[in-house]
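General statements about sequence and structure are easier to judge against a single worked case. No coordinates are needed to read the tokens, only the vocabulary itself. The sequence in question and its structure tokens are set out directly beneath this paragraph.
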Amino acid sequence: MVGFVKSLPRIRPLTLAAWALPVWLVAGALLWKTLAAEAARDRWMADEALALVRASDRQVADVVSALDGLAASPELAAGDLTAFRAKANDLVNRLGATTLLLTASDGRTLVNTLFEDVPQRRRTSLEVMAKVFATGRPAVSDLFIGPVSKLPMVAIELPIPPGRYVVQTLAVNLPVKPFQELVANRPLPAGVIDVLLDGNRVVIARSVNSERLVGAKVAPTVVEAFQRKPDGIVEAPSFEGVMTRWAACRSQENSWMVVVGRPAPSPYVAALYWGLWSVSSLVLLAAALRAWRRRGSRLR
């Protein structure tokens, strides 16, 4: 520092300070404004992720409520599966679903709305059903491709009755279109992306390029970043290859997750402001040292 001070031209300290102080103030203000704006954008993304998680949870809850009403039907209580099938078909049409299944505890399909006279065969996919029996609560599947429709779908399944002593389950297979519409209709600023992910971190819906990217799995490096900071801010490339700043929020009701992204800010702007502030701070410090040295030499 002493060498730097000696290398300065012989300028009076007050003149040196007068040159450096405006730069220091402006650079500091611009740096603070830049950092504050970035923090505000990050908070907005976190709020948007939470809002979309709650919206998707409500959409799932609406389906669960409809299934609850069907599970409480007198036809099912009386064991009249023919009459129950008619009500189940009505619900399938109302929900825009493809299939509704009533399954016994041993995995036998008692009702399958996709087939009229299907024999009571065992279901091949029992992961969600096992979770329902284990918890006594409704459960939501990860994304899968419907074996008949060949559409990307999710399943919502609930216990009958709810609680510890589950006897049967009622499940509905839903195309992801309602969730895609939910995400697509979010009012977003330019450049912002909303993404709804399942428990395997596979895309269910996306506000940009949704049709192309539904079923795409998030890169392992991005998943690891979210695991380290599950509700924080991470920077990782998007599917389009753009370095993006992401905010994440996990559902408290199921394994799904929402991430909200925007292009990562250029590091050069903040670096420029920081550099100007640092250099002007150094010059001000040098001016103070020069003034102190002059004062000391006069006293001697």
